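job 3f2a | input accepted
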Amino acid sequence: MHMLKHLPGKEDRIVMPNMQRRNFLKYMGLGAAVVTATSLAACSKNDDNNNPGDNGVSLGSGDVAVLNFAFALEQLEAAFYTQVVASPYSGISATELEFFTDIRNHEIGHREFFKKALSSNAIAGLEVDFSSIDFSSRTSVLATAKAFEDLGVSAYNGAGQYLSSSDTGKVYLGLAGKIVSVEARHAAYIRDLIDPGSFAAGDVVDANGLDMVRTPAQVFAIAGKYIKTKINANTLPHA
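job 3f2a | predicted structure (239 res):
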């Protein structure tokens, strides 16, 4: 059973090799925006986020709910890739391990960005359930990575429309655009590991060259298999 509550540990202090977290955020162009987003999120403080009732942990409301939605997915991905790197599958190549380590570091960076931006509005660490994944099997790990990356890209594509048109919402939308582009790079790499040349297959990119879009409800219907913590997504904005 790979069921755990993802809590800060040694791996969380590693964002990129030989690069401190502060420099990583600057590298991504997020350093100054973190301060801005944090102060903006504080204006919508909701102390009830981490006091789950029968309906589960609340994501909050408005832009905070959208950011917590993204934060939940980044927690899931960071936990998955941390496990992949900690217990590499049989026969993994040095190049694959290096690339998975980079992906892990990116996901931890994304997770920590949202945590800092949301400040006291951030939901608590989620308890994940990876019992259905065979981390010793390349096939199992790559299939799960493909599902997570495709899901993440479609989730960001779908969530952007729910951010407000306020200055706050515009800041968040710009940052989300930077993150989803990295997620798409991950998705392309994983797909090509499974089937070379499949990075933009028709199941994710349509005839107009547009990527798949999923609503938060569709995303949680898929991701819920791996998240043990009950989440109440009813407060997410709707188009």
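job 3f2a | DSSP finds seven helices and four strands in the chain.
job 3f2a | closed
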